[in-house]
Amino acid sequence: MELAELMTLRPEPGAGLLLTVTGRCPLHCAHCSTAATMAADEPDADRLRAFVSTFTPAEHPAVLMMTGGEPLLRPELVTDLAATARAAGTRTALLTGAFFVGRADHGAGHLASGAGPLPAPVPDSAPVPVPVPERIWRAATSVDHFSVSLDAFHEREVDRRSVFGLIRRVLDAGVATSFHLVGTGPDDPYLADVTADIRRTFGDRVPMLVNSLRRVGRAASWAAANTALPGAALPIAAAPDPERALPCSMAAWPVVAADGTVVACCNQRVVDRRPAPRHLTLGHIATDDWQSVAVGARTSPVLRMIRTVGPAHLLHRYGGAEQATAPPDYCAGCRALGDHPEALAAASAAASGPVGALLDRYAARGQVEAGAATLVRRHGCAPYADLVDLPGARR
Q1: Do 291 and 59 form a contact (C-beta atoms < 8 A)?
Q2: Residues 6+ positions from 249 with CB-CB distance below 8 Å
Q3: What crossing angle do the helices spanning 311-318 and 301-308 adopt, rounded to 10°?
Q4: pTM value?
Q5: Contact at 8 Å (CB) between 281 and 254?
Q6: Mean pLDDT for each consecutive 10-residue tract of the chain (395 residues)?
Q7: CA-CA distance, 375 to 8, in Å (whole number)?
Q8: What is the DSSP-derived secondary structure letter of residue 285?
Q9: Which of 17, 50, 84, 111 stands 20 to 30 A from 340 (CA)?
Q10: How much is the pLDDT for 233?
C-alpha cells in the first residue's frame, strides 16, 4: 500500500482507523504534537487486540494506521494487530520515529527546545547499514506500509543516514515505505535539503508527506504564530470564508486515543483533552466494537455536515446570535459546535437520513477523485504536495 493510496482514502468516512498503540516515546522532539514522554498513557494491549478482532470480512476499515507516541515500543502488539487486521481484509500502516537506529553524530550540543538552533544540512547522508532488533524488524515487516518521521527536530536525536539505511532495508524486504516530513513552512531550507537528499538517495521510490509546523503539543509555547492555525491537526488556510463550504477531510477516520476513547477527529486537542466534545466522540474500545464506531462515524448528522460544508460554514449559517463569540479559527470552531444548539439542530435536520448520506458520499467522492496531491496541497505544505505520489513508488 503506497502513500498516495493512503492519502486518497483519507476523506472517505470509515475507510481508515487511526490507532494510538501507545502515548509513550523515548525521544524528546521539540515540536512533538503529542508532547509524548515515557510516562504517558497507553491503551491496554488486550483491549486493543479485542477491538481490532471485531473487524470482520463484511465490516472492516480499508486501512489501520498505527501510531503513537512511538508504536514500535510495543512491537509484539504491532505484529499481532497487523495479523488480526489482515485476516479481516484490512491493510496496515505504521508511523515511527525510528528511535532504535541511534542518535545523530552531527547534532551534539543542540538544545532540546524550540529556542535552540536546528541542525545544519547533512553533507553526506548515504544510507548506512543499521541493525534492527529482531522483534522490531518483525513488526516493521508485518505491515503493508512503513513510514518514518524525519525533520530537524528528530535529527537532533536520530541519525539521518541510519534512517535512510532503515528505509532501504524495509524497502528491499518488499514493504512500501515513505517519509513524513515537517518544516517551518514552504521556505524552510531544511525541507529543501531533506527532500532533495531523499530524491538523490532513493530516486522516485520513496514518497513524502510534507507538513508545516503547528503550534500544538511541545511547539505550542514557542512556534511562530503564523506557521499554522493553533492546534490544527493539519494546517488549513487561516480565517476561512464562512460563506464558502470548506469540508473537513480529517473528520472521516475514527481515532483511538491513548486512553481508549474513540474520537472522530485527529486534532490533538480532541485526541488528548477530556472530556472530548460530545459531537466528536464515537465510543470507547472497552465497550464498543468497530461496527458501532464505523456506523456512528458515517451516520452522525453533525459529522456529515462537518465533512460536507465544514464547521465555519455551519456556525456562520446556523449558529444563531452566539455565533459571534465562537472561536475564530477553523478547528476551534468545530470543537465549540456543542455550544451552539441551533447549529446542531440544523445539522440534524439537514444531514439525517438518505439525503445526508448522499451529500456525505458526494463530498467524499469529489475529494477522492481530486487525488492525494490535491488533499496534501490543502492540508500540508503545498509546494511539496506532489511528492506524496512519486511515479517510482507505484506498483
Answers
A1: yes
A2: 10, 11, 307, 367, 375, 379
A3: 110
A4: 0.86
A5: no
A6: 94 96 86 74 94 98 96 97 98 96 49 41 66 95 97 90 95 96 92 96 96 63 42 44 78 95 92 92 97 96 92 81 58 88 90 90 91 91 95 73
A7: 8
A8: T
A9: 17
A10: 38
DSSP category for residue 253: S
CB 256 within 8 A of CB 49: no
> What cell numbers appear for 150 in the block?
524525519
Q: What is the pLDDT of residue 107?
A: 37
Q: Residue type for 384, please?
A: Y
- Of 300, 295, 318, 287, the residue nearest 360 (C-alpha): 300
User: Could you tell me which residues come within 8 angstroms of residue 273 by beta carbon, excluding any fewer than 6 positions away?
Assistant: none
Q: Which fold has domain 3-298+371-393?
A: TIM Barrel (3.20.20)
Joined grid coordinates for residue 18: 487511526
Q: What 3-state class would DSSP assign to 394?
A: coil
Q: Which three cell numbers stand for residue 394?
A: 507505484
Q: Which residues contact 381 (CB under 8 A, 6 or more apart)?
A: 183, 185, 186, 191, 210, 211, 212
**Grid coordinates of 168:** 532501504
